[in-house]
């Protein structure tokens, strides 16, 4: 006997609820319970057998009511918090349950069905009554029940076409049929005081109605797609909505003096990825909301980011400083630069005044005036050391060291740097624990770059440096990492100098991306003989670069190990946070943003007018400080770090996972790396731990422009992904460090035309012996088959064989070698398995051990030969294939759109010298729907299949037959992909993807 | 599923334009017929096309039933009649009587029966699909409810031995539907025309040989739900589901699968 257990599940979450210090989130049939203050998972409990939990209600008596599809269940909270399953409480009804609530006594349950009936049943599962209003049996998409007392309870129901039906479920009387919306109603609720009805619809609007009169009061517009769920809070003064457009919006229900009610949109939070936020709840005492979405993420949202810690945004004009703080300003005097510190801020004016802002007392004071710093000044500092560096364009510098509270100048140093007559830039960075570094650049391109190392304590010069400046080099950022000076420049170029060497020539990394300014370079990690640092570029690119260095800090070479582009505007900087997440910041249109790039969500944003202004951003222990000038006014925005986790669950993809691939040839940390390619056009590089079963996502690759078709590791460090528009990308994985793996786009396959329209459906790879070169087969949606040679030295693909099967779409391809022949097995949508013998056509030889040998022939393009053999196995399209070569036979496992699965065995016919196939085992009606993927595992003795009917099956194939040994329901809808890996303990891990993702364990 | 407009311009799209069909769906019905020949029956008289707009199925029905006959040439006593029902208005088609109505509404049945002078239909088809929300289980349920509504109507209007064809999506609970249909028809087949994309879950149920169970009188009533309507269908009354009961595994049968349209016909997944 063999056994399957589900270890981890990640998929859409349809509803969330706060209760005390918990958040209850429904994941398919499961209920996951978190402590929202810590993010800790308290328990995961199976509530329903197969149906998904669509809604939950928590009674005062400590019972939980959960419902979804035709299931409903009431179970004690105590069991939900501890037990693995409360499925024994599940009941099933005859109609879809749109909504369910406890009655006033909490001894009975009301269930609103999709045919607008209320079923009443007691906790012993006995039906008590069926309530309905005559004639109203049109199908509902939504509805809710509001219980006010024993004899006062209402049903509000939203129909598929325009209507909102309000009825008394005790007296079975209908009050209103509200018909103001257009299209289906997706949610309708009653306010807590019973005076207002709120509804939302297909038409993207929210409407408020008067419960007594049925009058339409107001319409709220704002969402850019359908709205799924609503909730009143703050004594019905506020409403929160979630939508298909990924946002959660807060509305105030404002009553004007004339009594007119309006919905005013107060806040928009981009809470989830790609599509669909399904659930929302509010914890009023903390002023936070929690949302759940199709991406499986549970997001905690601060509803009062600005007011929570006092006023977070402060604005000061120089005029105000004169009046309120008694610092006399001249006419036309302006802020010229500033640097945030722990105590507040130091700023300089255009007349050389040095001002200090104390953020505790909110007061400004004049520290000193340096008349040299009139008109032009550049302002930087070292926040940890309370050191400010201000320069003018005549190579004159003012360096100040301030006391802890910023009120007194401990040390002051006025420097004039004689080597340069003029400066256009002055950049400052930490040198080491005891000193800082100032880089000065002259406007004359022939002048050298000048560096000063200053003591943190005495501000005295410790060392001076000169660096030869490369051509076309203009400094834009500076960092010192391990005795290396790393300077960012325009045109996406980075220059690196060794500080220990006499000769200060530059190691140049040119044109990393398209060519904008480098905005930051940041140390990431250190390896024996190598360093990794990150580089951000104003145009949105960020890169991780590895440089190989000798003991004498000689740079041997560099390698870009990761490159990606942010989806939003200008990129100004990045850092790794305390959770090892990669955080980026910059500007998009008129906003400054702070974004968690690893987990893909916005941490904060601030309206500031856009990128073209003076600004500064620093991180402190429990807050960030953004300072910017807008309309001559200085604004200080404190962005406090949320005291709760931003997400309780990170989620994975916003849409269906189309393919999964495990890097099975090598483990990573205590588990394996894997990639998921999704309909959302992204590829995620993630990790699963084989002990904790936790899943950790590192990167979201955005290079594909259409939904993914396939992705697959072809070696330890190479992965290939394909999608529509003839996109095939070759990625290189780098796992040198344990903090995170990197994956970089190495090359893409040439397309057949400029605006390609074909899908690359699948591919297969065969390596050439003793090299990292390979032969690649690609198959297309127009029946084309192409064979390429990839030369790793040149990093180039060359087309070597081209041809076409017939006219139908091809779905799978696999190279196999057998009897010193190279075959390409292809499956089309016509149900055949087609075998091409390309031994003659390909210009590589096959060794006796069936490996490809490079015989240095000139590679010319040849035509694809006619297929050697084909055999019809399925009635319609073959969805997936796996192959195995054993004892001079080729075994092909196929699954089809015809709900069937087949095992076809090919053998060499001794007379014709050709392969001939017979279908050895074929199961019709193996599933009720398309069988979408399959994978061999357990030393190729078992076959896993997934189907859209959500039944996963495992067959024993050791006797060349398909013997079903396990089947199990998966909660993952649109089940479409899988991959497997055998572990050393004899068990296997099965990864199943669709709308969500599951990790299963299989044991003999 | 986010198809780009280019994607839609496949072979069938272009072919439909050429042949004057209002939608590429026409080929789905034609290919189903290639396999099952239900439209080739010379005795076919009364047919109902549910969820018919914009009307390409009705065009196919009209062309095959009235081969080359103009509308003016049809005689008074000709019993042949096509009724096309949709929520949306439809522009006229020769030999087709249009009815703008909701197929889930009980009154629609009477209107059709009136048009047929209370005679039974030989063939009912439905190509209906509701809007999708993205909640897979809800979308599948609503689709099945639409099929059940069509089926409800069909049971009241179809002659014994008649044929019912409807669009389905092969999701998680499709076998529950197969089971239900199994009580009413001699043969239930899940058919997939080659003009229907392999990448979509769309397929068609072809239900052949209508046999209402003995003693079961289908009757449409405003106040009973689809579920209640089909109650009593199962022969052993002990297994009648109660309104609510402890979770149990329902009977699920898998229908036979049949691909239609022949291999020489175009593949809708191919792009050129
Ligand atoms: C895919 S189209 C049918 C195409 C049609 N067979 C053809 O070939 O032109 C689906 C149709 O179902 C209709 N429909 C959906 N629900 C309906 C209902 N309850 N009653 C009537 N028609 C409905 C829609 O209005 C839509 O026109």
Automatic annotation (TrEMBL), chain A:
Q: What is its main location?
A: cytoplasm
Positions of WD repeats: 178-219, 220-261
GO cellular component assignments:
endosome
InterPro entries in UniProt: Quinoprotein_ADH-like_sf, tRNA_Anticodon_Mtase-Reg, WD40/YVTN_repeat-like_dom_sf, WD40_repeat_CS, WD40_repeat_dom_sf, WD40_rpt
The protein's GO terms of the molecular function aspect are:
enzyme regulator activity
Xref: Gene3D superfamilies:
YVTN repeat-like/Quinoprotein amine dehydrogenase
Q: Which GO terms describe its biological process?
A: endocytic recycling; wobble position ribose methylation
Q: Any idea which UniProt keywords this protein has?
A: Cytoplasm, Repeat, tRNA processing, WD repeat
Keyword Transferase attached: no
Which cell locations does it reside in?
Cytoplasm
* Alphabetical list of SUPFAM superfamilies matching this protein: Quinoprotein alcohol dehydrogenase-like, WD40 repeat-like
- What family, per the record? Belongs to the WD repeat WDR6 family.
Name under which the protein is recorded: Uncharacterized protein
């Amino acid at each position: 006997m063999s056994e399957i257990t589900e270890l981890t599940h990640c998929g859409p979450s349809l509803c969330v609820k706060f209760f005390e210090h918990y958040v209850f989130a429904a994941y398919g049939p499961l209920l996951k319970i978190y402590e929202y203050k810590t993010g800790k998972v308290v328990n995961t409990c199976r509530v329903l057998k197969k149906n998904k939990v669509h809604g939950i209600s928590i009674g005062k008596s400590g019972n939980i009511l959960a419902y979804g599809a035709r299931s409903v269940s009431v179970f004690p909270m105590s069991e939900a918090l501890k037990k693995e399953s409360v499925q024994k409480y599940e009941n099933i009804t005859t109609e879809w349950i749109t909504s369910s609530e406890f009655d006033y006594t909490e001894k009975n349950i009301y269930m609103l069905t999709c045919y607008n009936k209320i079923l009443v049943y007691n906790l012993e599962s006995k039906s008590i009554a069926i309530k309905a209003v005559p004639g109203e049996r049109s199908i509902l998409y939504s509805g809710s029940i509001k219980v006010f007392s024993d004899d006062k309870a209402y049903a509000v129901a939203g129909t598929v076409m325009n209507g909102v039906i309000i009825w008394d479920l005790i007296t079975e009387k209908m009050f209103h049929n509200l018909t103001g919306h257009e299209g289906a109603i997706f949610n309708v609720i009653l306010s807590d005081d019973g005076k207002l009805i709120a509804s939302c619809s297909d038409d993207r609007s929210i409407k408020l109605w008067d419960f007594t009169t049925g009058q339409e009061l107001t319409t709220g517009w704002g969402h850019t797609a359908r709205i799924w769920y609503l909730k009143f809070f703050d004594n019905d003064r506020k409403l929160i909505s979630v939508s298909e457009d990924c946002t959660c919006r807060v509305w105030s229900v404002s009553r004007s003096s004339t009594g007119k009610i309006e919905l005013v949109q107060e806040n928009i939070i981009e809470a989830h990825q790609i599509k669909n936020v399904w659930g929302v709840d509010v914890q009023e005492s903390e002023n936070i909301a929690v949302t759940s979405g199709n991406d499986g993420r549970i997001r905690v949202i601060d509803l009062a980011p600005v007011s929570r810690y006092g006023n977070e945004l402060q604005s000061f004009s120089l005029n105000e400083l004169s009046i309120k703080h008694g610092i006399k300003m001249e006419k036309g005097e302006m802020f010229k630069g500033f640097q945030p510190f722990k105590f507040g801020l130091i700023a300089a004016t255009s007349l050389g005044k040095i001002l200090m802002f104390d953020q505790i007392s909110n007061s400004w004071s004049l520290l000193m005036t340096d008349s040299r710093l009139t008109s032009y000044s550049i302002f930087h500092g070292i926040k940890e050391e309370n050191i400010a560096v201000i320069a003018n364009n005549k190579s004159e510098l003012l360096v100040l060291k301030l006391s802890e509270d910023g009120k007194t100048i401990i040390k002051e140093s006025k420097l004039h740097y004689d080597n340069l007559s003029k400066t256009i830039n002055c950049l400052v960075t930490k040198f080491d624990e005891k000193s800082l570094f100032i880089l000065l650049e002259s406007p004359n391109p022939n002048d050298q770059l000048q560096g000063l190392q200053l003591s943190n304590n005495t501000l005295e010069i410790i060392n001076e440096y000169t660096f030869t400046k490369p051509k076309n080099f203009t400094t834009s950022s500076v960092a010192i990492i391990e005795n290396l000076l790393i300077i960012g420049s325009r045109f996406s170029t980075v220059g690196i100098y060794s500080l220990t060497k006499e000769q200060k020539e530059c190691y140049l990394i040119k044109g990393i991306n398209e060519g904008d300014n480098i905005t930051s370079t940041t140390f990431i990690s250190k390896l024996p003989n190598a360093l990794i640092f990150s580089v951000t570029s104003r145009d949105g690119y960020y890169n991780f670069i590895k440089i190989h260095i000798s003991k004498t800090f000689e740079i041997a070479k560099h390698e870009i190990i990761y490159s990606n582009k942010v989806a939003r505007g200008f990129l100004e900087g990045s850092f790794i946070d305390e959770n090892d997440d990669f955080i980026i910041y910059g500007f998009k249109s008129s906003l400054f943003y702070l974004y968690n790039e690893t987990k893909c969500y916005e941490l904060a944003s601030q309206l500031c007018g856009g990128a073209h202004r003076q600004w500064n951003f620093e991180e402190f222990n429990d807050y960030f400080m953004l300072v910017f000038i807008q309309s001559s006014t200085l604004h200080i925005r404190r962005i406090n770090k949320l005291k709760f986790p931003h997400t309780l669950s990170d989620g994975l993809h916003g849409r269906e996972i189309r393919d999964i691939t495990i890097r099975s040839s090598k483990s990573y940390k205590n588990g394996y790396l894997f990639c998921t390619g999704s309909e959302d056009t992204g590829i995620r590089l993630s990790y699963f731990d084989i002990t904790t079963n936790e899943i950790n996502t590192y990167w979201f690759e955005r290079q594909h422009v259409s939904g993914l078709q396939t992705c697959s590791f072809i070696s330890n460090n190479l992965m290939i992904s394909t999608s529509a528009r003839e996109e095939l990308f070759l990625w290189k994985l780098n796992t040198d460090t344990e903090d995170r793996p990197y994956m970089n786009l190495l090359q893409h396959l040439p397309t057949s035309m400029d605006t390609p329209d074909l899908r690359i459906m699948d591919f297969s790879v065969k390596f050439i012996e003793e090299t990292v070169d390979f032969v690649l087969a690609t198959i297309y949606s127009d029946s084309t088959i192409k064979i390429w040679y990839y030369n790793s030295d040149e990093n180039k693909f060359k087309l070597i064989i081209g041809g076409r099967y017939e006219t139908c779409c091809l779905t799978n391809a696999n190279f196999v070698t057998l009897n010193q022949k190279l075959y390409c097995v292809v499956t089309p949508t016509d149900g055949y398995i087609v075998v091409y013998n390309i031994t003659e056509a390909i210009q590589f030889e096959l060794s006796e051990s069936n490996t490809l040998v490079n015989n240095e022939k000139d590679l010319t393009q040849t035509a694809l030969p006619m297929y050697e053999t084909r055999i019809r196995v399925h009635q319609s399209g073959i969805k997936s294939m796996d192959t195995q070569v054993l004892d001079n036979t080729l075994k092909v496992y196929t699954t089809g759109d015809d709900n069937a699965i087949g095992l076809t065995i090919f053998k060499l016919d001794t007379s014709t010298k050709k392969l001939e196939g017979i279908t050895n085992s074929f199961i019709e009606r193996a599933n009720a729907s398309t069988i979408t993927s399959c994978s061999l595992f357990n030393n190729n003795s078992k076959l896993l299949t997934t189907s859209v009917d959500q039944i996963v099956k495992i067959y024993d194939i050791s006797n060349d037959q398909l013997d079903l040994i396990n089947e199990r329901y998966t909660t993952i809808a649109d089940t479409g992909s899988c991959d497997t890996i055998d572990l050393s303990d004899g068990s296997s891990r099965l990864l199943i993807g669709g709308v969500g993702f599951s990790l299963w364990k299989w044991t003999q | 599923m986010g198809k780009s407009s280019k994607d839609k311009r496949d072979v069938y799209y272009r072919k439909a334009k050429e042949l004057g069909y209002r939608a590429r769906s026409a080929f789905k019905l034609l290919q189903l017929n290639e396999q099952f020949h239900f439209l080739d029956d010379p005795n076919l008289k009364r047919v109902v096309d549910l969820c018919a707009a914009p009307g390409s199925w009705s065009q196919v029905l009209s062309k095959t039933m009235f081969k080359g006959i103009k509308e003016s040439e049809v005689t008074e006593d000709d019993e042949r009649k096509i009724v096309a029902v949709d929520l949306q208005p439809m522009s006229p088609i020769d030999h087709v009587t249009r009815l703008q109505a909701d197929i889930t509404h009980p009154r629609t049945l009477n209107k059709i029966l009136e048009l047929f002078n209370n005679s039974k239909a030989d063939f009912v088809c439905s190509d209906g699909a509701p809007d999708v929300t993205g909640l897979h289980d809800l979308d599948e349920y609503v689709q099945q409810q639409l099929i059940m509504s069509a089926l409800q109507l069909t049971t009241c209007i179809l002659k014994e031995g008649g044929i019912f064809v409807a669009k389905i999506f092969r999701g998680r609970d499709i076998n529950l539907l197969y089971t239900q249909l199994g009580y009413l028809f001699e043969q239930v087949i899940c058919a997939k025309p080659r003009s229907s994309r392999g990448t979509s879950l769309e397929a068609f149920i072809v239900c052949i040989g209508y046999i209402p169970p003995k003693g079961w009188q289908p009757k449409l009533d405003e106040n009973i739900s689809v579920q209640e309507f089909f109650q009593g269908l199962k022969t052993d009354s002990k297994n009648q589901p109660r309104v609510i009961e402890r979770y149990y595994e329902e009977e699920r049968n898998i229908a036979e699968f049949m691909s239609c349209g022949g291999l020489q016909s175009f593949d809708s997944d191919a792009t050129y």
